[in-house]
């Protein structure tokens, strides 16, 4: 199976992303996020490992890639997870891109990306940092860098002239909503685009959250399992609750004139003409 695959969000009609290619240098992820959806379909997800013969195979696949293709790095694991410090597959991959006519989207939770800004400056790239919470980051994302490191990385990336996206994702009722508002205000000056997304529950991720936040277990199971709706393999919050959660964030962003998008929420009244969820439109500005 090729490592470069057409991006397909499980056939979701709610996805607003344009056509692009998806690539994961690693299988699984060492950030061990409790809310991760990928652990539901990738075996041994929390035992991350490099893709076999990654660089050799990807060189061949890049030769066949159409010019000006958009590559999203990564959608099922973090390209700058802890393994990257040792194996450097992400760095070696982007080095190879410098001789290609492609466009790059990077989604990460790690300040390790600062190491590669020298190479990334030679590419057409948009960098997305996921900021989920402040004090809860070690519970929700135990293997990822702290919120402070990520925010400082965002500031440096913006200072260096890169186009930036902040993903406030996921928004989990009664767990990180108040801190997420602080995240929004603190990141506002450094983001060109925002992506907002409520938590979509998978069976395994919901159990992990309930175990970590025992005092919220009954509430979470009621909202997702009893009152929620089933959409393409995930349990969603009821529509009105999603609207109530997202609206305060939308109002703040709209006042700044910056663009935003909602990730697979289906709230058409808040659809923006300024850009897609993934921020790929920034590649063409």
From TrEMBL:
The keyword Transferase does not apply. Pfam families: Radical_SAM. Residues 15-240 form the Radical SAM core domain. CDD domains: Radical_SAM. Keywords: Iron, Iron-sulfur, Metal-binding. One of its GO terms (molecular function) is metal ion binding. This is Radical SAM protein. It comes from Caldimicrobium thiodismutans.
């Amino acid at each position: 199976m090729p490592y470069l695959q057409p991006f397909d969000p499980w056939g979701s009609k709610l996805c607003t992303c344009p056509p692009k290619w998806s690539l994961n240098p690693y299988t699984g992820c060492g950030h061990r996020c409790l809310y991760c959806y990928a652990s539901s379909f990738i075996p041994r997800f929390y035992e991350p490992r490099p893709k076999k013969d990654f660089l050799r195979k990807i060189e061949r696949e890049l030769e066949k890639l159409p010019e000006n293709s958009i590559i999203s790095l990564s959608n099922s694991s973090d390209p700058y997870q802890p393994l990257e410090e040792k194996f450097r597959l992400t760095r070696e991959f982007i080095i190879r891109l410098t001789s290609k006519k492609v466009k790059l989207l990077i989604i990460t939770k790690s300040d390790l990306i600062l190491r590669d800004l020298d190479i990334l400056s030679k590419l057409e790239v948009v960098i997305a940092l996921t900021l989920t919470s402040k004090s809860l980051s070690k519970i929700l994302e135990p293997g990822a860098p702290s919120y402070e490191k990520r925010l400082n990385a965002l500031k440096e990336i913006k200072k260096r002239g890169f186009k930036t996206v902040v993903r406030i994702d996921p928004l989990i009722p009664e767990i990180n909503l108040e801190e997420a508002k602080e995240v929004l205000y603190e990141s506002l000056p450094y983001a060109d685009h925002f992506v907002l997304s409520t938590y979509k529950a998978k069976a395994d991720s919901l159990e992990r959250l309930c175990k970590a936040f025992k005092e919220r277990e009954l509430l979470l199971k009621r909202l997702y399992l009893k009152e929620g709706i089933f959409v393409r393999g995930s349990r969603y919050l009821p529509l009105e609750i999603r609207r109530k959660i997202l609206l305060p964030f939308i109002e703040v962003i709209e006042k700044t004139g910056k663009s935003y998008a909602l990730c697979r929420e289906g709230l058409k009244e808040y659809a923006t003409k300024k850009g897609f969820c993934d921020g790929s439109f920034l590649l063409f500005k």
